[in-house]
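To assess whether ligand presence alters the predicted conformation, the chain was also submitted together with glyceraldehyde-3-phosphate. Input:
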Amino acid sequence: MQSLRDLLQAAQDKGVALGHFNISDLVLLKAVFAAARERNVPVLVGLSEGEREFAGTQQIAAFVRSLREEFDFPIFLNADHTHSLAKGLEAAKAGFDSIVFDLSALPFAENVRQTKQAVEALKSIHPAMLIEGEIGDIGSGSEIHETAPDLVKGLSTPEEARQFVEGTGVDILAPAVGNMHGMLLSMVQGKAKKRLHIESIAAIKRASGAFLTLHGGSGTDDEDLREAIAAGINIVHINTELRVAWRRGLEQSLASQPAEVVPYKILPPAIEAVEAVVNSRLELFNRERHFAQEG
Ligand code: G3H
Ligand code: ZN
């Protein structure tokens, strides 16, 4: 089995990106795994601190490991949005493949100082674990927001990106490039899309030389996502779109069989609804570019 680092490099060489999908239960895990197997592409599943609290840090690690081993399939596990070293160490000890150590809410210099300490501590107990750091402001909460936060002041610059990667030793950088966590109602309804600063992504890639993650992928314009990957994004995170599909799938299933009480008869439509979203996102992220044909 190739390592996550090798798969990221291979994806970068091909001009594609790895899909990262947040999960907090078996419905979401089964849906992501089924879609990745169907497309036969490597995939990352991630759990934030809250999602890990619900699923169980050790338990979800055992589950994902058993899928990887039984099916000999490249599914990797990420400790998403981890805000303290204690929570990071918990995930490292449980065998997570990567971690998003997110101190982006702190002043820049403090973010650099504490992220560097975390890189050293985490690598000392799990050397192969990839560590991602975050800079800038992309808002919080993979939920449906009533109003758009003003994130203009939190956009990342190439110079910050270079300083952060050099100063911390992170393997992966998550910048603020027009992306935002969560969706507006208009985005859920398909009436509006998030737009990205493609030039900024390209400049950050040149300045930092690091693998780049795009957080807040839900509701982003498809063509912008393709351009972002071409400009240097290596991982795209999707959460809210899955949560919306999970809820709709469950509601429809309950409505269509009001007397049913058997979980394994109620839940499959929720799995199918999430799987369809993951499948279409994986298709987009793994579409190789053929420049000659595009003209
Ligand atoms: O880390 C999780 C993601 O950044 C998800 O963002 O809910 O906007 O897709 P999203
Ligand atoms: Zn995120």
